Amino acid sequence: MNPLVYICIGLGFLAVILATLTWRKVKRGRIIGSTLYGLQGLLALTFLIALLLILSNLNSYQRLTFENDIVDVVIKRIAVQKYQLELIYAEASNRPGASQIYTISGDEWQLDTRIIKWQGWAN
């Protein structure tokens, strides 16, 4: 678990404790004491909100940059102008461990890929 989560939990408890102390001071009529506890509680709450925003931003960034191997490509030269291409599907694909073998002739072939990266709130 991310260490920021523990800090957020601690700040949340601190804000609740300070709010409780502030309420007790207000009930007793101690204005200066309640003001000090109230300001400390607001400061803890402000830090809590800032850390939660940072934590959510880091979490979404980690999910955006998370990459999976889909397939391993192995190309072997069989003869002059003849190649064997083997696609071995990785565990993250929909066919883990399966492989396909193709024979390719000539030297004017290319391998194209399509990479999808989610943007913004799409993840």
The SSE string, one letter per element, is: HHEEE
Number of strands: 3
SS summary, helix count = 2
Provide the gyration radius in Å.
29 Å
Strand share of the residues?
Answer: 15-25%
- State the separation between the terminal residues, measured CA to CA: 20 Å
The pLDDT mean sits at: 81
The biggest sheet, with number of strands, parallel, antiparallel or mixed sense and barrel status, is: 3 strands, antiparallel
Morphology call? rod-shaped
Helix content: 40-55%
Low-confidence stretches: none
Tally of individual domains:
2
Strand order of the largest sheet: 1-2-3
Secondary-structure-derived class: alpha+beta
Task: Specify the oligomeric state.
Answer: single chain
Can you walk me through this structure?
This protein folds into 2 domains: 3-64; 68-106. A 3-stranded antiparallel beta sheet has the order 1-2-3, with no helix packed on it. The two termini are 20 Å apart. Helix 1 (3-28) packs antiparallel against helix 2. 49% of the residues lie in helices and 20% in strands. A hairpin with a 2-residue loop joins strand 1 and strand 2. The mean pLDDT is 81. With 123 residues, it is of the alpha+beta class. It contains 2 helices and 3 strands, in the order H-H-E-E-E.
Descriptive terms for the model:
123 residues, single chain, 2 helices, 3 strands, 20% strand, rod-shaped, three-stranded antiparallel β-sheet, alpha+beta
